[in-house]
Design goal:
The protein is an alpha+beta fold. The strands form 4 sheets. It has a 5-stranded antiparallel β-sheet with strand order 14-13-12-15-16, sandwiched between helices. Strands 2-1-6-7 form a 4-stranded parallel β-sheet, with helices on both faces. A 4-stranded antiparallel β-sheet has the order 8-11-9-10, with helices on one face. About 35% of the residues lie in helices and about 25% in strands. Bound molecules: adenosine-5'-triphosphate (ATP) and magnesium ion. Magnesium ion (MG) binds next to loops.
Length: about 300
């Protein structure tokens, strides 16, 4: 197969591991910076161009789209899809998962466990909002935050109101969330590929911190998931329409509560914590899709022939 990893940085661990894994399995694999791809849209002839070249013979892509370029990146993925190229994740699911609020709404609709979450625009509703998530302590999250930045624990109702009002005053969109104290600064990342959990790690926050993000000094170790945690992770990926997903969950007394479903989950933390080859699972999924597509080709051709006779 000819595989393209869509990534803005060739040096990133995840990008390198995907290229390495694909190459080891006998594929041709190149990295393309999606922010430098451009598209041609015309009747029956969609095209993608990169560095002045028309890109035509690609079998599969692995999107590694960063949060800051979701709109452009998913448009490029969509263009590959229109050109009948296999994608490790659908463009629509990437866009869907990037919006934290939309993600929580979808998961809630699918009946999956979540911390109670509120979203509002008016400061006059703050009191009711705080009561809705069970009062203080509570967690306030910037909708656009990542890596733990913009996630605040408000210990008292007074502190919560001040922080919420400050965020509103600055024109930020925020989520207000029940604080899950049983999690005790830990969360679980389950890496899902094609309906299976292929690796899982537990992240623990550093002393005096409630956010377990590795970027905030947290540490990661391998963990064996309970059946319920596995099922929740798989169901969350399915609800979001993602084939490849990093599902973050908080352990709680009422079972796993999902925090987020990531469409470009990093490989470094999970491969190092679990000592497993996660990259190869993604390549194997593409191979499977490719085989299916090849085996369907004669059927589709026959169908077209038959239809054209009519
Ligand atoms: N409701 C909560 N109760 C207890 N701890 C929480 C809660 N929400 C978040 N945390 C802790 O804070 C960390 C960061 O929160 P979250 O994952 O929601 O934001 P983020 O990491 O900034 O966003 P992203 O995952 O999109 O990069 C979590 O990993 C978890 O350890
Ligand atoms: Mg997170």
């Amino acid at each position: 197969m000819k595989i393209v990893v869509l990534s803005t940085n060739k040096q990133l661990y995840s990008t390198q591991r995907l290229v390495e894994s694909a190459t080891q399995r006998g594929h041709e694999c190149i990295v393309m910076d999606h922010t430098k791809c451009y598209v041609g849209i015309q009747q029956g002839k969609p095209s993608i161009h990169y560095k002045g070249q028309d890109i035509t013979d690609i079998d599969a892509i692995i999107p590694r789209i960063g949060a800051s370029v979701t709109f452009y990146g998913s448009a490029i993925v969509r263009q590959f899809e229109v050109m009948n190229v296999i994608s490790a994740n659908p463009s629509q699911a990437i866009t869907r998962s990037r919006d934290k609020l939309r993600c929580m709404q979808i998961l809630s609709g699918a009946g999956l466990g979540l911390p109670i979450t509120g979203f509002a625009r008016m400061t006059s509703d703050v009191d009711d909002l705080i009561n809705m998530v069970g009062g203080a302590p509570l967690v306030i999250k910037l909708l656009e935050g990542t890596q733990g930045i913009g996630v605040v624990l408000a210990e008292t109702k007074k502190a919560a109101s001040s922080v919420i009002e400050a965020f509103y005053g600055l024109g930020n969109n925020i989520l207000i969330q029940e604080y899950i104290k049983e999690a005790k600064g830990t969360d679980i990342r389950a890496f899902v590929v094609d309906g299976k959990v292929v690796g899982a790690m537990k992240r623990t926050a550093k002393e005096g911190e409630f956010r377990s993000n590795l970027h905030r000094g947290g540490t990661a170790e391998i963990v064996k998931l309970t059946r319920q945690q596995k099922e929740t992770a798989i169901a969350a990926a399915r609800a979001m329409g993602l084939t490849i997903a990093g599902v973050d969950m908080l352990p709680s007394s009422r079972g796993p509560l999902i925090l987020e479903v990531n469409s470009s989950p990093g490989l470094e933390g999970i491969e190092k914590a679990t000592n497993k080859d996660i990259a190869v699972e993604i390549i194997k999924y593409l191979e499977h899709q490719y085989e299916q597509k090849q085996s369907l080709k004669p059927i589709i051709k026959r169908k077209i022939k038959k239809e054209s006779k009519l």
